[in-house]
Protein: Acetyl-CoA C-acetyltransferase
Organism: Actinomadura viridis
Amino acid sequence: MAEAYIVEAVRTPVGRRGGALSSAHPADLGAHVLNALMDRSKADPAAVDDVVFGCVDTVGPQAGDIARTAWLAAGLPEEVPGVTVDRQCGSSQQAVHFAAQAVLSGTADLVVAGGVQNMSQIPIAYAMTAAEPLGFTSGPYAGSEGWRRRYGDREVSQFAGAEMIARDWDISRAEMEEFAYGSHQRAIRAIDEGRFEREIAPYGDAATDEGPRRDTTVEKMAGLRTLVEGGRLTAALSSQISDGAAALLVASERAVRDHGLTPRARVHHISARGEDPIRMLSAPIPATAHALKKTGMTIGDLDAVEINEAFAPVVLAWLKETGADPARTNPNGGAIALGHPLGATGARLMTTLLHELERTGGRYGLQVMCEGGGQANVTVLERL
């Protein structure tokens, strides 16, 4: 049976909006992790079959196939192609899935997968603003008769979806604030203990994630206004707007042998599932159940989990439904503290998951993310 191995994984620090990475061209952020990936793995760049990058809002400096642009900006071989994918927040996790599928199918032996996003330069949903001169002012669903017949005129919004999850799973604001505070504390501990140092390739003077707030308290969070009137969610319970890039090298058994590479993990499972696009953010729950059924695993078999903290209720509802160990879930903090550079987050989470399994000696790790349209990707890695 064919196997797909993770040989190397590296990321930039995650920069805060307006922070140390904000002025960097997205292609240069991508080029930085690509060069670091090649240097650390000792792989021959000319042997790479494809470069698959995730990115959302591919306009301006992120347009024109950022995967290809970043590879060329890195000074790497022109004969290697690149392609950019968009599965919303899970774009670079999907990039890893495509890379693994290419290797598992035997159509490729060495594939780079990753993602990049500079949200300081290209704010979320900027593409919709850019489309206004063309007469498109109400988002991707407005005007579709088929959509209206199926879902009516209900609001489609990540904020509305997060509020629905908090309501449907009866998650209080206080419970979410305790979780968010814990995310910052776990991230700060990870930084202070040097847990991220092996996975980060410093970018200029930026060597550490900028998002975690050492001065935050539950009391400060309790004083914030809600995002929607009468709601439970506040900015403190949401992922941070951020900048960053990450990349992984996926190899076949033949590539490992022919190029003298050292595999660090095996891709044990990849899948994606969909659910209600109005509630939008709850798909990690059925997606995780699907992955466990397909693999014959139980939630207790997982030594570490990375679930994207798009909003606090996403993770808290998932924990309630799966019965997962909170101590093994986002043990080094999540996007509430570390930030969420949309197209890069999937690869960032997988990079962190791999290094956490190595740090603790764990065998299996699961990554899952909520995504626009009511979708979720799931990956299970087995550390070697």
Observations:
- The first strand starts at residue 5 and ends at 11.
- Residues 173-192 form the longest helix (20 residues).
- The mean pLDDT is 96.
- Residues 306 and 349 are 6 Å apart (CA to CA).
